[in-house]
Fold this protein.
Amino acid sequence: MLLELTNVVAGYGGGDVLRGVNLAVEEGTITCIVGPNGAGKSTVFTVISGILKPRTGQILFKGKSLVGLSPQQVLTRGLVQVPQNHSLFPAMTVRENVELGAYMLRDRSLVRKRYDEIQALFPTVRERASEQAGSLSGGQQRLVEFARCLMLDPSLVLLDEPSMGLDPKTLREVFKTITTMKEAGRTILLVEQNARAGLRLADHGVVMESGQVRLDGPSEGVLNNPEISALYLGGSVSKQAAGA
Amino acid sequence: MSLVLQGIVTGILTGGVYALMAAGLTLIFGVMDIINIAQGAFVILGAYLSYWLSVHLHIDLFLGLFITIPVMFVLGVILEWLLIRPLKRDRTQLSILVTYALAIIIEGLLYFFFSADNVKLFAWYTTQSIPVGPFYLPLIYLLAFALSVVLLAALYVLLYRTKFGRSVRATTQNRAAALLIGIDVERVAALTFGVGVALTAAGGMAYGATTPFTPNSHYDLISRLLVIIIFAGMGSLGGALIASVGMLVIENVTSLLWSPVWASTVFYVLLVIILLVRPQGLFGKFATRNQ
């Protein structure tokens, strides 16, 4: 396993948001975490990224513990996060934003090489390089965020609500890019409010509720689980599956 | 007409010095979301440091900056670590109280070491004037303005041409995202506070060489600086420069054409009008910050 969380308990102030989370992410796959609001999905990411320290439990990445590491140290291990809210620097150009993804790198020639590779992959970066990031549409900003996160050539990419606020056409483009990232050898862990779309994209599905993992398995199985379907997917997936 | 021109020129020159002091204040707010009420007290501290070096060690006011700027930078970094970093919640509101307390402490220490007597910095160039067109301009105003231009240019290079500057701008625009791409935002905050305070060393020297001061001069100063950065838009560096010059020109012209009594009033009347018409200031960052 590339990433393993064992009995992770974490929270803010006096309360626990995560109450013993067990989770495993296999290398080269897309894993999607779904669940109702307040389930602790995004908190899983803040704990993995080193922003929030777990109270107990273990987080192993490539067999080594991430517990106690700073966000900078987590990045150097090859794990990057694209957060839920727009995370670009709006008054900087698209190029500056993407280059900042390699902030941790000191080798300027490597930064240039990575930038060239990434602008070949992302037409938005190539075509809008000198424009202010704040002037792009929501979908374009999402793609620039993806481009930026690849500057460190990460092994694992954490995507928090990549579909948030996107129209269906842009959503398809964003999901296609996620598939391309997987095909390029990255492992993706994503949190998705649009559970059905997220699970269809993923190889593996995880359902969270009240700070714990309720169900974990191949995404198709999760998608077609009648109980989960009724609880989190509006109860229509099984009917659709039956009708198909 | 000559009087208006003189008011404008003097306003631009003094506005440059205020821009230097306001730049530090707005930079600190932009990066750290704190309002440093002690900025005026730091300016006066910087002025007294220049005074002490000049009187006791006979070091030229401008050469003394090579000592006072690094000293104030280190002081800023230490104070950020000691007083600002521990503020984890309600940071903006609490920072007002903490930095106000800091200003009072600095004022008290200055009274203790230097007394309440009026002080002005002296050097051969503080009493000279040079003819510029139809009127004479105090040489120190020109030198102070030149110093401000040089330091603001250096600040521009630091912010827009260095990796540290990128990290400062990134933290200003989106602190959470900056953290996630590996920027040590606490280190950036400490260094920014240091830079903001270091600028007051130069601002203090320029202020003290053009205006008599006492330990409590910081009250008037911080009021003006706050008006400038609110007028400009909290966190906007370019706006602070424009607002400093604009406000000081208006104040000077009012003073010369109408009355010095009304000059300060116009300053604050303008603030009220701006807040009513455009609450985020002329170049406010609230429209762009995404956090």
Remarks:
- The two ends of chain B are 49 Å apart (CA to CA).
- Confidence is low (pLDDT under 50) at residues 286-291 of chain B.
